[in-house]
Predict the 3D structure of the following.
Amino acid sequence: ALRNRSGRDQGHLGQSVTASRHPSPVAVRAVYQVHAAMPKVPILGMGGIRTGKDALEFFAAGASAVSIGTAIFNDPSAPWRIQNELVAELESRGIERLRDVIGIAHKEQG
């Protein structure tokens, strides 16, 4: 296991420290804040994406794309599974196009 300077367990190689929280609330908030400040700048959301619902949170916060990382270690087919789950999430909400979701959390706020 990896340990930080204080000796606390930080997980194993290939495992994000925040992997137990998906998606990372810090990462989603960062995407949200950057999108609020610069809505026309493309943003790559990353940080604990394991499901289509996780990806949807990043898109709603303002990400124009997402990156799948640690999930691939346990499931090499994760990108395809997550894409299929994302499509199902959109369909369950009656949303036809992904671009209609990008930044929607900002529209709901104000």
In short: Residues 88 and 94 are 10 Å apart (CA to CA).
